[in-house]
Design brief:
Blueprint lengths: L4 E9 L5 H16 L4 E12 L5 E9 L2 H8 L2 H10 L6 E9 L11
Antiparallel strand pairs: 1-3, 1-4, 2-3
Length: 112
């Protein structure tokens, strides 16, 4: 699961109605994103922390083959469509997006 570029989205989801957003992620959005050129994989991590309003936290992590692939995605019609799909869900989630190039990767060894 190595990827030189990561695109991450930290999301806070309302406990009241947020299941609509999570269903959209699980059943549609994440699978559509990784079908975009240059995407290698996607993971969702449920955070242990809640925000100050008690909303649930998630971190979406996408691995990409290059910065160019990410830039293509950020300017793509697919991303514009995703923004439109999010409009009806604006009241049940908040998101912060960030990305970067992996500059260090360490792997542990498990004892035999």
């Amino acid at each position: 699961m190595h990827a030189p570029v990561l695109y991450m989205v930290k999301v806070w989801v309302s406990p009241d109605g947020g299941e609509r957003y999570l269903r959209w992620l699980e059943e549609k959005h994440m699978a559509e994103v990784i079908r975009e050129p240059g995407f290698l994989w996607a993971q969702r991590c449920r955070l242990e922390q809640r925000d100050e309003q008690g909303w649930l936290g998630y971190l979406l992590i996408y691995g990409l083959e290059s910065r160019e692939a990410l830039e293509r995605y950020l300017g793509s019609p697919a991303r514009e469509r995703f923004w439109r799909e999010l409009e009806p869900l604006a009241d049940v989630h908040r998101a912060e997006r960030f990305y970067g190039t992996v500059d260090l990767r360490l792997e542990g060894t498990s004892p035999s």
